[in-house]
Write a structure and sequence with these properties.
Elements (H helix, E strand, L loop, with lengths): L2 H6 L13 H5 L8 E2 L2 H9 L4 E6 L4 H11 L2 H10 L1 E6 L4 H15 L6 E5 L5 E5 L13 H14 L1 H19 L12 H10 L18 H14 L2 H16 L13 E2 L7 E2 L2 E2 H17 L3 H17 L10 E2 L2 E2 L2 E2 L7 H19 L20 H7 L4 H19 L7 E2 L2 E2 H18 L2 H18 L6 E5 L2 E5 L2 H18 L2 H17 L33 H16 L2 H13 L1 H4 L7 H12 L2 E6 L5 H12 L6 E6 L20 E6 L2 E2 L6 H9 L1
Parallel strand pairs: 1-3, 2-3, 16-17
Antiparallel strand pairs: 2-4, 4-5, 6-7, 8-9, 9-12, 10-11, 13-14, 14-15, 16-18, 18-19
Helix pairs in contact: 5-7, 6-8, 9-10, 10-11, 10-12, 10-24, 12-13, 12-17, 13-17, 14-16, 15-16, 17-18, 17-19, 17-25, 18-19, 19-20, 19-21, 20-21, 21-22, 21-24, 22-24
Length: 690
């Protein structure tokens, strides 16, 4: 139900109308007496000794919208919620620390999790029962939400002993999840290679990717595979990356007209996506395609990366420079409606000359592949299409460009999916890094301009000179930032520093790391907590460990600290990164899928940085810029780039190295040993490819 429809019904908005989160405001006209998470709701629950009904979701979540329509707009169900509970709504993207705690609880209760997340808490905030989506009435083996509410309310009144036992056991289990003892000694040699081999056991050799349906991109797994290719030149992993990224780029998970990737595929062949588009997915996938394009020398992967970045600049960029969070799966109340096509639409739009090409190239059929309509995907490539239609490849490329442009323009006239326009620090950091890397790999100045503008937005809007904020909306920054915000933003500032050689961004990365080390560090066991030491007290102070769709805060922290150590030589950065690695050392080899990004950090830790030192001599800025541009087109995962100009830190092995005959001179240093001086960019490139 839209706000307009709610207003027509004369329904008074609830407290969520004053919240900046678009997700919370979507529920502002429900008949449910929603509270945002905060002292007012918790105090009421305690004063009335009433259980809390906590509902967690996010704006682009399809099943969150379904549960809202079915249950939260249902007057009878709403009355039961208001009578027997204190209902609280949480945007998981704004409050990921709450989401992690209560998701862990539901996974312990039900053996699985997901969104919408539905959790029943004591007035003190401790969980005792929960699940995910509940239908309004009993359906397909799932209990109806009304029946669940009645049962929980009765249990609260009549079975306090049972609930007390559930609370005690769940709380103990939740605390145990974060109480990890560090391993002894260093990680095993060539851990990255061993982990990659283990992960390859779940590789889908037919469709690419890991496992079966539903299928997620799993960017960190394939990024790890590229590192193994770099370390060992093992082409088995190169083939896995190439096959997977090709299949994804041809599938319905990729928006063939507008660029950008949808969330995941519900099938095992990347055809039918969950249609929401998330900023973080597109940031991580852009970076993966950039890395694969350079590592495997595949221009198509670079082209896909460019289409991702162009989509973000076109549709997900705020006028102030930050990036929006997501676009919905639904439009006009239907999942995927904006993206799908009928044959008749295509034929009317393109006519008899172009429509047959579009139908064959994008596999558009009368019967369709999604509820009688068509998700565009590619089953043939440009050369095959040219042969089928007896055209040259150049002619076919022009035809396909025309088809894509006309279909895109027609699609732009449709009602677009909703867009969550809050700006989140961690997600923006990932996109800043992807754009900076896009500039280095592709040489497109607009990507550097966007990265710098977003970095300046973060410094001036999200950072107050001492602390970082999580979220920005409607001109205001709010909420304490979390570990992932600090760690990923520090990494993004290093990315911008590498792209610009402007030391201000390296200084900003160090300032972020300083707060991380001061306020998030577990000084006893190592690693970092999800929240700062002055954050709101919750039932547990969790440590983020598993790499999922985004890197865990600890893996991002380890990577940022290792990179900072490479650029500064400051030993504390290396020490604390090593303590993160040891904290999870016993689990890395056993659960490589859950720690894929942290294993990438282990690779950096074990192999060390490839230090590229450029000594200017009498060379001008143009020549230096040209060399940096050539370096940017190479895949060097553990790089550190230094321009020796009489100031700043240099690796010990490179100190005092001269420019040869006044020429711009490079030294490549590995394992505290530097190459001979290199006075041509071709020689430098050959050394770096070696």
């Amino acid at each position: 139900m839209t706000d307009h429809q709610s207003d027509r019904a004369g329904r008074k908005p609830n407290r969520l109308i004053n919240e900046p989160s678009p997700y919370l405001r979507q529920h502002a006209h429900n008949p449910v007496d929603w509270y945002p998470w905060g002292e007012e709701a918790l105090a009421r629950a305690k004063a009335e000794h009433r259980p809390i009904l906590l509902s967690i979701g996010y704006s682009a979540c399809h099943w969150c919208h379904v549960m809202e329509r079915e249950s939260f707009e249902n007057e009878e169900i709403a009355r039961a919620m208001n009578r027997d509970f204190v209902p609280i709504k949480v945007d998981r993207e704004e409050r990921p620390e709450l989401d992690q705690i209560y998701m862990d609880a539901v996974q312990l209760i039900a053996g699985r999790g997901g969104w919408p997340l539905t959790v029943f808490l004591t007035p003190e905030g401790t969980p005792f029962y929960g699940g995910t989506y509940f239908p309004p009435v009993d359906r397909q083996g799932m209990p109806g939400f009304g029946r669940v509410l009645a049962a929980i309310a009765q249990a609260w009144r009549e079975q306090s002993d049972t609930i007390g036992k559930n609370v005690a056991s769940l709380t103990e289990a939740l605390r145990g999840l974060s109480h990890i003892e560090p391993s002894e000694g260093e990680p095993r040699a060539e851990l990255a290679q061993a982990a990659a081999r283990a992960l390859a056991g779940a590789y889908d050799s037919v469709n690419g990717g890991i496992g079966g349906a539903p299928k997620f991109p799993n960017t960190f797994v394939f990024s790890l595979f590229l590192r193994v290719v770099d370390a060992d030149a093992d082409l088995t992993f190169a083939d896995m990356v190439s096959h997977t990224l090709t299949k994804m780029a041809k599938g319905g998970i990729f928006d063939q007209l507008g660029g950008g990737f949808h969330r995941y595929s519900v099938d095992d062949r990347w055809l039918v996506p969950h249609f929401e588009k998330m900023l973080y997915d597109n940031a991580l996938l852009a970076r993966l395609y950039l890395d694969a394009g350079r590592a495997l020398r595949d221009q198509e992967f670079l082209d896909i990366a460019q289409r991702i970045l162009d989509y973000v600049l076109r549709e997900m960029t705020d006028p102030e420079g930050g990036f929006y969070s997501s676009q919905d799966a639904d439009s006009e109340g239907e999942e995927g409606r904006f993206f799908i096509w009928s044959v008749d639409e295509v034929r009317r739009l393109l006519g008899p000359d172009r429509s047959p090409i579009a139908e064959r190239y994008f596999d558009i059929t009368e019967e369709g592949n999604f509820e009688g309509r068509n998700i565009l995907h590619r089953t043939i490539d440009l050369g095959e299409a040219a042969r089928l239609f007896q055209k040259s490849e150049a002619e076919m490329r022009l035809a396909l460009d025309e088809i894509t442009a006309r279909m895109f323009a027609a699609r732009e006239k449709r009602v677009k999916p909703g867009r969550d326009e809050k700006i989140l620090a961690a997600w923006n950091a990932m996109m800043i890094g992807a754009l900076a890397e896009g500039y280095r790999a592709l040489g497109e100045r607009r990507y550097l301009d966007a990265a710098v503008r977003a970095a300046e937005f973060a410094i001036t809007r999200l950072w107050d000179g001492h602390r970082l904020h999580r979220s920005y909306k409607d001109g205001a920054a709010r909420l304490n930032a979390y570990l992932e915000d600090y760690a990923l933003m520090a990494g993004a500032m290093i990315d911008v520093y590498e792209a610009t050689q402007d030391v201000r961004y390296l200084d900003q990365a160090r300032a972020l790391a300083a707060v991380m080390l001061e306020r998030f560090l577990d000084r006893d066991r190592g690693g970092f907590y999800f929240t700062s030491d002055d954050h709101e007290a919750l039932i547990v102070r969790a440590k983020p460990s598993f790499d999922g769709s985004t890197p865990s805060g600890n893996s991002a922290a380890a990577m940022a600290l290792l990179r900072l150590h490479a650029y500064t030589g400051e030993e504390r950065y290396l020490t604390e990164a090593a303590r993160v690695i040891r904290l999870y050392g016993d689990q890395l080899a056993k659960q490589p899928f859950a720690f894929a990004h942290l294993i990438e950090a282990v690779d950096f830790y074990q192999r060390g940085a490839v230090e590229i030192v450029l000594v200017r001599g009498s060379a001008g800025q143009d020549e230096l810029t040209q060399w940096l541009a050539r370096i940017g087109k190479l895949y060097i995962p553990n790089r550190a780039i230094f321009v020796a100009d009489g100031g700043g830190f240099l690796p010990e092995a490179a100190r005092g190295r001269p420019a040869v005959d006044g020429k711009l001179t490079a030294y490549v240093c590995r394992d505290r040993t530097c190459s001979a001086p290199l006075t041509s960019i071709d020689a430098l490139e050959a050394e770096l490819r070696d």
